[in-house]
Amino acid sequence: MGKHTYENLEIVQKATIILAEYVEHLAGPTGLMTVVYSRLDATRKNMDFDVVKVVAGLMQDNYPERLHQAMAAPTGPLLRGAWKVVQLFFDPRTRAKLCLVKDVDGFKDAVDASSLPTEIGGTCTEPLSVQPIVEFAEQAWAASRTET
């Protein structure tokens, strides 16, 4: 995901809901999810904070009890320092579930290697991609606009 990859945040919102509902379907009524966010090759210049705010807000407001843990790596000292301030805006229970990890090897402590993509040290060769979900949401959004 690069800066302003998605022109319409409503599409991102719909894609997030579709993905969350799909994960809820897979996990069952009491299942929890662990979110692994790989920041390999990420920089401040290609980070879309509007998308992050939409996704984090939806998940916190609508699926707070489904999250076991969310991890992001690699994170440098600047990002970890900023997190100390930003985390104050999160609900304390949600904040306790969020973790910035220095490097992607930290994912292996919380997630089985078979669930991690190979580019971050795992053995999964076909990880779930959000791109088809976003494309589906874009198509659904476009279709709903032509119906009105």
Automatic annotation (TrEMBL):
InterPro entries: CRAL-TRIO_dom, CRAL-TRIO_dom_sf. Gene3D superfamilies: CRAL-TRIO lipid binding domain (3.40.525.10). It comes from Hondaea fermentalgiana. Residues 1-128 form the CRAL-TRIO domain. The lineage of its organism: Eukaryota, Sar, Stramenopiles, Bigyra, Labyrinthulomycetes. PROSITE patterns: CRAL_TRIO. It comes from the Eukaryota. This is Phosphatidylinositol/phosphatidylcholine transfer protein SFH8.
